[in-house]
Automatic annotation (TrEMBL):
Keywords: Membrane, Transmembrane, Transmembrane helix. Pfam families: CarS-like. InterPro entries: CarS. Signal peptide: none annotated. The chain crosses the membrane at residues 6-25, 59-78, 98-117, 138-162, 168-190. The keyword Membrane applies. This is Putative integral membrane protein DUF46. The keyword Transmembrane applies.
Amino acid sequence: MLETILSLYVTLMSVIFAGVANMAFCKYPTYQRLNIPMDAGRLLSDGKRLFGQNKTWKGFIGMILFGGLSQIVWGLILKTIPSLESLNLFYDVYANSILTNLWIGLLLGLAYIVFELPNSFMKRRLEIMPGKPANNQWKWFFIFIDQADSLLGCALIVAVLVPISWTQFFGFIILGAGTHIVINQLLYFLKLRKNPF
């Protein structure tokens, strides 16, 4: 059981690094030309934004690039710790090489950010302010979805690339969501995040 949990963390640790790096990247005033909303401020027929102000091209591109970079760095670290490298599910099928890690990391970063978009779309329809938790009957539903949506995307990438069980698939989502909450609390404490959830 403990080895299974450790394997889930080792496999997607690069996503955690990429998420933290991208949060810092979005917070600081670099590449402001990319800091524009993906929906360009347009309103849909219901008079509401598609995704809102916080889903920017800077964050979208940053997550993909940091995904690739983090996976490469994590692969290099794991090469020095064979006992952990053997727990990474990707390396059961693919070689731990820079090129392999690059495309796996880019895919994970893309899945992470794309799977956040439907959540943003739903929250705009329900008039939940961008970057704010819901203050109504939807509060706990969206707190969970906010943590799990991106992990669902990453779990799907793992499932497509590597044969995994349903237990492992849902383990990625549940364990990842719990880890996401802890990291968000830390980012909030470090003032890299506006809200604790």
